Each structure stands twice: as C-alpha cells, then as structure tokens.
Amino acid sequence: MVEPVRFPEIDLYEGWGEPMRTECEVKALEIIQGEIPAGLEGTLYRNGADRQFPSGRTDDIFIDGEGMFHMFRFEGGQVDYRCRWVRTERFKRQEAARRGLFGRYRNRFTNDPSVEDVHMGTANTTAMFHAGHLYALKEDDLPYELDPDTLETLGRVDMDGQIRSTSFTAHPKVDPVTNELFAFSYQAKGDGTKDIVFYLFDADGRLSNEIWFEMPYAACVHDFAITDEWVVFPFFPLITDMDVVKAGGPFYQWNPKQETHVALVPRRGGADGIRWFKGPATSAGHMMNAHRDGSKIHLDVCLYEGNCFPFFPTPEGETAPGVPPFLTRMTMDLERNEGAFTKQRMLDVSCEMPRTDDRYQGRPNRYGYMICYRSADGSSSTGRLDLATGKLDFWSPGAGDTVQECQFVPRAPDAPEGDGWLLVPVARLSKGRSDLVVLDAQDLAAGPVATIKLPVRVRSTFHGTWVPKETLATGLYPYKLHAA
Ligand code: V55
Ligand code: FE
User: Fold this and answer.
1) Is the CB–ligand 1 distance for residue 462 below 6 Å?
2) Fewer CB within a 10 Å sphere, N or C end of the chain?
3) Nearest CA to 145 among 191, 90, 87, 198?
4) How far is the CA of 34 from the centre of ligand 2 (A)?
5) pLDDT score for 449
C-alpha cells in the first residue's frame, strides 16, 4: 500500500491554484475570435510550477513545485498546444515512489532520507532557447534540456562542462541580435555560499567570459540586467542562513536592517573592474531593462519598498506585510554618486513581470510591457508604458480574469521597436480555463487580434520565450535593430 494522494486545504491549492498534474496535447486549438496574423510563425514556450505530489506540509509556496512546460506552436494560421512535466531527477524519484519526497522550498534538510543524494531542481521557472538547444530553467539547479518539438526531457546538462557552478539562473538574456547569451549563477558553490559567477556565451554556445566574485551576503538573485558595457547585479537582503535551513527553516529570510547593494560588472572585463553601489533595504524579482547614459547606468525594476516575498519572515520570525511593486529607475553614476544609488518611481500603477521588445535588452528601450494591477475586482491587465511620454496603454481581459506575463514578437526581423504582437496567456477564472490572446502591441486598447481558446487551465506560468520558426531550424535568431 502506498499512502493516498491528498493535497492540503491551503489557499495556494484553492480554485485556480488546484494542482493540474495533467499532461495534454491539443492539435489546432479553437480560435474563438479574429485570426492569427500572417507571418506569426514560431513557438511560444512557457514554464510554470505545478505539483506532482503533496509535500506533506502546509507551508508550500507558489514559486515551488515541479516544472510543467508548455508550448504553443503557431504555423499556417493555426496553433498546436502541448504541455509536459520536466522529468527532473526529483520528478522521477517521486514518480517511482508515487508520493512526495521533497519538503520545504529548497530545504534539503526537510526531504525524505531516501533522496539525500538527488538534485532538487524543479526546472519550473522559464524556457531558454540558445544555439539550437531548448532548456527548462530554475535558479537552484543546472539547466534541463528538452526536445523542442516533443518537450521530452533529454537530461540535466552543464553545457559541455562549461557551467562549473552548482546552478544556473532562470533569467538569462539571449540577445536575439548578436545571438550571445548572458547568464549567471548565485550561491554558485552550493546553498548558502556567497559566490556568484557571470557567464557570457557566444552564438555557438561557447563560453567567452566568466567572472567570479562574492556577494555581500548569500542573497536571492532572481534576475539581473545588461547594458552595452556593464552587467548589473542587484543584491536585496533576502538572505540564506544555513543554520536556519539546517534546522528546517525557510531558505531565505528578510533582513530589513541590511542594505541593498548593486554590483556593476564589466561585460568584457574581470572581477577587478567591479564597481559597487548601495542604498536602503528594498527587494525585487524582476528587471525591465538597463541602459547606459554617459557615466550613468539606469536600472528599471519592479521594486518593492519592503519584502517582495512576505512568506519569507525576518530572523525574528516576523512576517512583514506585503507591499506593491512599482516600476522604479535605480541610477548608478560612475562619476558622481560615490557608491550610493538613487531611485525614482516611473509609474504610479503597480506592475510586475516587466518585458520589452527583446531586441532592446541591454539597449535603451522606449516601450515596456507589464502586468498592471489597476482594478479592485482582482483582475489584472496587460500594459504598455511609453517611457518617452509616460503614457500607459492597456488591455483588460474582463472582470475577475487575469493575465500572465506577455511575450513581444516583432512583426518582421527588422521592424521598428515595439512594432509587432503581444502574446498573452489569460486565466479565465470566470470559466475555469485559459485563453492565449494576440494583441497588436501598438494598439492594446483595440482588443485582441485573435483569441485562442484552451479547453484546459494553464494553471500558472512564470516566464517563457518566443522562438521564430527559422530559429528552430538554424539555431540563430534572425533579428536586427531597425535602421532609423
Ligand atoms: C523567484 C521565483 C522563483 C524562485 C525564486 O520571482 C525567486 C522570483 C519561480 O521561482 O525560485
Ligand atoms: Fe522570474
């Protein structure tokens, strides 16, 4: 007898959050409104956390759970859908045992003794396609490679021995113009270590620079940003204390008495060229972009003036109240502000999951796309901010329904910035299923160009990527910057 599977009655698993645990495939999804624009040919990959088995605890958090990987293939005016578990080491051990073997988020001291030697990565956070390979990523482990057509898991990989850290970020930047890959690992020599390493790969997937340095504390470094000369690493005081972890406690603690630090790392240089800035405790998951303006480096980030993860308490065990994120420009002046960054709010509407036209990552961008929180009814909307004018355009899915992170797709490889489509997964909470909508990125208010109906619930996805049809074949993105 194996114990029956029963999930705990906690808010996380209520309603939309009920574990799906379902792999499915639908050829030629129903298009309930409009039509797929000609030229929109390629694959949207998305990744999210589901729950294979109950952990046996009641303190599960939404960023934990096994990776459920989704693909939407656009071809000839139709869209095929498929989702598959990422068959991680953790997944396979639980599948064989037919029960949960892993405990608290990232805390291996709470696992079943039978899986002491097993890598804990859930591969649940994003999709990356680079140099002809597709990966599922989670920041606590190495990448898992997947077959881009079937989503079959090919294995846990170190990219031909080039990744020597114990983990790899879930927020890499693939430059779709140069086809370079910018990435990093934090707590890079294992849980609780202060080591961090920046990796730069060329278009063929060969490591061309690697810079190791130390963080001020064992931080949670969920995302970073790049500019033409500098790589920007913010360190927020969500800190790992291994004594607490060993005692079965939370993997991170919120330390508001510690400062926020920013390291500017020279993209083509070494650790001796790193410049440091600091300021009061704040936190963030996600960066929109960064760019250089003379001696100033601007980092645009969805910043929380407090703890972005209220489920990680302070060392005193206090749970800080949640605060809303606001798009904020943090500025590091290499000539003037002497080790201290300045901050300026860019938009008074709370927003998260910021994106840009990916061709402008590391370059000055005019447009940003975010999930905006403007409604009292709990719904969210997709917004486009014009950074030049401050104007916010948006599209709302309707009362009670919510949008997930959007994906910008250029209309043509050399289209002007922002000329293209936004692909938006919509949680139709009102109907218990999902849609994928296609918006004209230059006219959100006009409503969807096409609405693609999913007969199932795409429970939650964090991040993803768009791979044009030809890129699947050649391994190279065809994109160029528009010549003005
Ligand atoms: C974040 C997300 C994670 C995680 C740690 O958004 C931080 C921040 C989706 O998983 O493991
Ligand atoms: Fe993220």
Assistant:
1) yes
2) N
3) 87
4) 31
5) 98
Atom of ligand 1 nearest to the CA of 223: 8
Centre of ligand 1 to C-alpha 252, Å, is 11
The residue whose CA has the least distance to atom 6 of ligand 1 is: 285
- Nearest residue (CA) to ligand 1, atom 11: 63
Note the pLDDT tens digit of each residue in 342-399: 999 999 999 999 999 999 999 999 999 999 999 888 899 999 999 999 999 999 999 9
Tokens of 428: 């139709």
Q: pLDDT tens digits, residue range 463-482?
A: 999 999 999 999 999 999 99
* pTM value > 0.85: yes
- Is any ligand 1 atom within 6 A of the Cβ of residue 106? no
User: What ligand has the least distance to the C-alpha of 172?
Assistant: 2
Q: Is the CB of 125 under 6 A from ligand 1?
A: yes
Which residues, including other chains, have CB under 8 Å from residue 306's CB and lie 6 or more apart?
256, 282, 283, 320, 321, 322, 323
Record the tokens describing residue 476, joined without a space: 């190279």
